[in-house]
Amino acid sequence: MSGIKFVLDTNAVIKLIDSNMALGSLDSAFINAEQYISVINRIELFADPKMTEEEELNTGKFLTNVIIVPIDEVVEAETIKIRRADTSIKLPDAIIAATAVALGAILLTNDDKLLKLSWPKLIIQNL
pTM for the full model? Predict the structure, then answer.
């Protein structure tokens, strides 16, 4: 592993699945990166009532290659700080951002609100 860590936002996962890309195909820096999602991402991905069987299968396949992070006390505490500082950030997005902070990872997203979030120790990159 390269020591680089990425937390993928839900929209980033959907883009990667829809584009039929592996994260490593985006840039050589991603090839050996550790890839994480929050348990919130998994819930958001599978809760779509319009999801087809094929989409569910592709999502499941994609998720076998990432580490799913539960909400622990560190993520919880960071989430509370983020939401108190910026109530315009939706709670699920705050949890995902807090997961990146807790892991010391780069948050990979296309979400405009998250891309504008300025938070200590949070590095955000547009996919």
Answer: 0.88
